[in-house]
């Protein structure tokens, strides 16, 4: 009897860990809306400040995008761990994975967004191009980040 119960629990856990879309995606979107608003306010405020200070194009792209990621990630970690994925892992287990996931998503998403936006919107003004790059990087980051958190950072242990 115990063996059958244990086997059923293991099957449910394996199904949960391999299912791409479930209720976590809705929760992730809700958390993402909050993170996005907070992160974008910080990002565009820092873009505005850097522009007023006369920062060059590279600095006024990577610093605001980084501010967005840092501010949004702090809230994201707390909310996704406890609300979205209801993870029972300790901070020691998942904080390192979370940081690595965020860094990879950041470099990939924003590294792709800026050159792609420059290619597609060749005739856009400098500020419009920055805004398009930052917004598209943020969207791409969110998509990649969901899968990293869902299937690696907060994946339930199959022990």
UniProtKB/TrEMBL annotation:
Gene Ontology biological process terms from the UniProt entry: polysaccharide biosynthetic process
Keyword hit for Phosphoprotein: no
Family membership noted in the UniProt record: Belongs to the GtrA family.
Limits of the GtrA/DPMS transmembrane domain: 27-154
Topological category with respect to the lipid bilayer: Multi-pass membrane protein
Name assigned to this protein: GtrA/DPMS transmembrane domain-containing protein
Protein keywords: Membrane, Transmembrane, Transmembrane helix
Cellular component, GO, one term: plasma membrane
Pfam families tied to this protein: GtrA_DPMS_TM
